């Protein structure tokens, strides 16, 4: 049931309950992203520099957990704009990959870094907002019909796939503690995103910025609670919280990275979060192609220019 759009049903106490649930889920999502120290840039860096694919495998697990969530809820993952033509999609994915490299983190990682006190990553979302706002004003995707598809695998096969990925990752992960932390984080992110998509259908982590424009109250609520969860996770993990004042170079870099990621997300359409949490669960080959190109772009840039990206937990 679309809680927010069913205005006749979601009134009074019901509406407040729905908003409380959305806020709580946004908080949990932000907490899990910081707690799991998950980021496509970090994952690709570990693959290239350390020959460790564990975090990339975990990101695929997250997509399967989201598919399990959709299946349990009886809901179909939905893209609210049609996929771009292949050439445009490929170019947009490469632009998004450049944006991730310039920014120093993907969408997941930016939320996590902000929670760690790296407030310069807030400017990543300023760049995203500018691009998505201009896209909103220009009507990009406004006349497109949503595309929905149920996960192509049943619940049993999805569970088997998750178990297989967990077994592979356990075999290559050195730290049992890190393995458990990442496993819980991926399950929570995937399942929570599925529930959020039912309660607030236009939700995506990237689109939490754009949704401020299209569904203002829910968009602001998701945005604030998600960052609040990330902040609390860092506070509990480190037993302290230190805000790091950004310099001018940091501000320019994060803003430019956000702009590039915003352009890519606008044209694909969707960021790495949408690809993993919506595109993959619906079995869209376009999502697989775009995500592969994002990772490949990052890999090439890391090989050529290096990377200082590191997990923080």
For the terminal residues, how far apart are their CA atoms?
37 Å
Number of helices: 13
The average pLDDT value, as a whole number, equals 84
Shape: globular
Total domain modules: 1
Helix amount, in percent? over 70%
| Largest beta-sheet details | 2 strands, antiparallel
In which order are the strands of the major sheet placed?
A: 1-2
Topology as H/E string? HHHEHHHEHHHHHHH
Strand content: under 5%
Estimated radius of gyration: 18 Å
List unreliable stretches of 5+ residues.
Answer: 5-10
Number of strands: 2
How would you characterize the overall build of this protein?
This protein has one domain (26-305). The chain is 71% helix and 1% strand. The longest helix is centred in the N-terminal third of the chain and has 24 residues, at 13-36. Strands 1-2 form a two-stranded antiparallel sheet. It has 13 helices and two strands, in the order αααβαααβααααααα. 51% of the residues are buried. With 313 residues, it is an all-alpha fold. The chain has helices spanning 13-36, 40-50, 54-73, 86-103, 107-115, 122-138, 155-172, 176-199, 207-214, 216-238, 248-267, 272-279, 285-305; strands spanning 78-79, 147-148.
């Amino acid at each position: 049931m679309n809680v927010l759009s069913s205005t006749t049903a979601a009134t009074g106490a019901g509406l407040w309950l729905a908003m409380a649930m959305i806020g709580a889920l946004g908080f949990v999502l932000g907490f899990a992203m910081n707690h799991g120290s998950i980021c496509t840039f970090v994952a690709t860096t570990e693959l290239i520099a350390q020959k460790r694919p564990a975090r990339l495998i975990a990101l695929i697990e997250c997509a399967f957990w989201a598919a399990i969530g959709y299946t349990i809820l009886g809901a179909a993952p939905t893209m609210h704009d049609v996929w771009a033509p292949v050439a445009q999609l490929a170019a947009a994915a490469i632009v998004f990959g450049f944006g991730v490299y310039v920014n120093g983190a993907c969408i997941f990682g930016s939320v996590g870094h902000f929670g760690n006190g790296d407030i310069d990553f807030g400017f990543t979302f300023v760049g995203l907002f500018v691009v998505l706002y201009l896209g909103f004003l220009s009507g990009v995707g406004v006349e497109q019909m949503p595309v929905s598809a149920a996960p192509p695998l049943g619940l049993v096969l999805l569970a088997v796939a998750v178990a297989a990925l967990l077994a592979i990752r356990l075999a290559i992960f050195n730290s049992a503690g890190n393995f458990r932390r990442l496993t819980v984080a991926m399950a929570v992110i995937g399942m929570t995103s599925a529930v959020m998509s039912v309660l607030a259908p236009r939700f995506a982590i990237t689109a939490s910025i754009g949704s401020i424009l299209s569904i203002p109250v829910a968009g602001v609520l998701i945005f604030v609670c998600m960052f609040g969860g990330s902040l609390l996770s860092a506070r509990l993990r480190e037993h302290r919280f230190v805000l790091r004042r950004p310099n001018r170079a940091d501000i320019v870099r994060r803003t430019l990275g956000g702009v590039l990621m915003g352009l890519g997300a606008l044209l694909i359409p969707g960021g790495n979060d949408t690809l993993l949490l919506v595109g993959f669960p619906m079995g869209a080959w376009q999502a697989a192609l775009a995500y592969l190109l994002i990772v490949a772009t990052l890999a090439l840039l890391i090989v050529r220019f290096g990377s200082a990206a590191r997990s923080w937990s």
